[in-house]
Amino acid sequence: MWSDWGAAGPGGDMQWCFSQVKGAIDDDVAEADIISTVEFNHTGELLATGDKGGRVVIFQQEIENKNPPQFRSEYNVYSTFQSHEPEFDYLKSLEIEEKINKIRWLPQKNAAQFLLSTNDKTIKLWKISERDKRPEGYNLKEEDGRYKDPNTITSLRVPVLIPMDLMVEASPRRVFANAHTYHINSISVNSDNETYLSADDLRINLWHLEITDRSFNIVDIKPANMEELTEVITAAEFHPHQCNTFVYSSSKGTIRLCDMRASALCDKHSKLFEEPEDPSNRSFFSEIISSISDVKFSHNGRYMMTRDYLSVKIWDLNMENRPVETYQVHEYLRSKLCSLYENDCIFDKFECCWNGNDSVVMTGSYNNFFRMFDRGHRRDVTLEASRENSKPMQVLKPRKVCAGGKRKKDEISVDSLDFNKKILHTAWHPQDNIIAVATTNNLYIFQDKVI
Amino acid sequence: MSAAIMEVNAEARRILAVSISKLYASRTQRGGLRLHRSLLLSLVMKSARDIYHSSRESEGPPVGGEQPSTEEAMDACSGCPGEANPGHREPQPEPESVEPAPEDPEGCDGEITEDKENRSPARQSRKRRGKASAAPDFLPSKRARLEPGEERYAAAPLGSCCRAGAVDSLSALSLNRVIPAF
C-alpha cells in the first residue's frame, strides 16, 4: 500500500519548504483578487497568475544562489496589466465576466514573451517586452517632448540610445473574439507553435495565432435538440509533441482523443477513455463527481492525467478501458456529498499538474491542503499552504485528515475542514522542484529543500 | 410507509428543493447561466425524481396529502420548454430556466419570426390551473407566472408529460427541459 511520505531521508526525498507568499494578508478577500489561474512559462523563469478582476500578474525568477544545496530563488513582480474588462452582450442581455479562466504561454521565439489569456468569451495574445534604453538627441524635439522652433535648428545629429530603468510593457497583439457562444473553459497551444485551440461547453475551435477574424470548428457536440443534451466539454489540450492530436474531457467522466488528420470535424474520436462506474458508489451525486475538471498530458506525451471531484487518474494513451493509476485525493468527502452539494463545493473545479519528469503529480483540496502523489515511489503527502507555516525556508509538515474514529494528535477531523479555503490552481516548475499554489487570493511558492 | 422509504423520499424532496433554489439563484449570476452547472443540477434533480418516484411506486398508492406539493415541484421542473432551433440562430441562454421562455415560439414556428413585443393576447393561454398554480411550499413566495407559449409544446412528443394530475405522469416527465434553451 501507499506509504506516507513524511520523513526526510537520503537520496532524493522531497522536502518542501516555504519560499514566498504573494497577495494581501487580510482575511477580507476582495472578489477581484481571487486567483483564477496559475501558469509557469516553458523555462520556469516566469510565473503568471490571472484573477477574477481580469488582471494578469507576471512574476520573474531571480536566482540568488545557483549552487545546490543552497539554491535560492525569488519570484518578484515583473509585469501587471489588465487583460480583460467586463463586457456586456447586448443581444443576450448578459454580462460577460472579466475573470481570467486560463493563461497559456507561447514558447519564446525572440526577446519578447507572449501569452494567451482568456475569459469566458474572448482570447487575447499579449506581448510582454522589456525596454531598457531610450532614444535621446532628437533634432526636432526637446528632451521634454516639446517641439523646437525650426528656425533654431542649425545642425543635424543622429539620436542615440541611452540606458534607462527597466520598463516591462504588455501590449495586446491579437484579440480572438466572437467565436464562442458558450463559456470558454480551456485554451491550449499546439506544438507547431502556429495554432491553438479554445474549448467551450459544446465546441472546440482551432485558431491560427496570426488570424483573428476566423477559426475552424473542430469539435461540436451540440445536439440538434438542446433537450437531449447529456454532456458538455470540460477541458481540452493538445498533445505536447503530436501536433495533430488533442484530447477533450467531458462532464460524464470520459476523455476523447482526436486526430485532426482523420477529418476536418473531429466529432468522431480516435480513442475513448472511460472507466466503468463502480455500482456500489452510486448516489444522487454520482454524475457530478465523475465530471472531469481538468486534463493534462504528461510531458513525455505517453500519459494523460484527469481530475474529477474525488480523485486523480493517470491514463496510458494506449489503454482506453481504464486508467493505469488512480489516486484518491479526499475520499473522506464521499460521505459528505450532500452537504457539499448544498454549499456548492461539489461544483468546484480542481486542476492538476505534473512535475518536470512526470514522476509526481499534484492537485489541490480544501482547508488550503494540496496533495502530491509520487508515482514511482508509491507515496503521497498532504501539505498545507498557510500563513502560519510561512517562515523563510520553513519545512512543511505533512498533514493528515482523520476520516472517522479516534482523532490522533496533529490530525484534523473532516468536520473541522474549512471548505471556503480551497486550492483549485497549482503549477509545477517545468524543470525544478518549485511549485506555485494558489489559495483564494494568495500565491504560495514552495521549493524543495534540496534542488 | 416504511421508515427507510420515508427517509429516502424526504431526502429526494430536499435535494430537489435545494436544486430548484440553485437554479433560481443562477439566474442572477454574473456571466449568465452556466451550461455545465445547469446540466449537473438537472441530472441531480432527475436522480432525485427517479428515486422518489420508484420508492413511492414500491409503496403502492400514495398518501393524498403529500402528493400535490411534490407534483408541483415536479411540474416546476418541467416548466422549461427547451428549444429546438437548429441552425437558425444561436439560441440565447434563458434567464428563467424553470419556466418557459418568451422566446420559444421561434422554435415551434420554424421560419416565422416572432414579434415578441406585439404578441396577440389570443395566443396566450394558461396551461395549468387549480392546484398547480399554487406555489409549492419550498419555493420563493413570489412565484413567476407560467409564461404564455407553454401550451404550444403540448403537441410536441415530450409535451404530454407536462399535464398535472396523475401520478403516472411523473415517470414520463422529462427533466431534460430544465436545461435552458442556450
Automatic annotation (TrEMBL), chain A:
Cited InterPro entries: PP2A_PR55, PP2A_PR55_CS, WD40/YVTN_repeat-like_dom_sf, WD40_repeat_dom_sf, WD40_rpt
Keywords: Repeat, WD repeat
Keyword Membrane in record: no
Statement: the UniProt record of this protein carries the keyword Repeat: yes
CC annotations in GO: protein phosphatase type 2A complex
GO molecular function list: protein phosphatase regulator activity
Family label: Belongs to the phosphatase 2A regulatory subunit B family.
Subunit structure: PP2A consists of a common heterodimeric core enzyme, composed of a 36 kDa catalytic subunit (subunit C) and a 65 kDa constant regulatory subunit (PR65 or subunit A), that associates with a variety of regulatory subunits.
Protein name: Serine/threonine-protein phosphatase 2A 55 kDa regulatory subunit B
Organism encoding this protein: Sphaeramia orbicularis
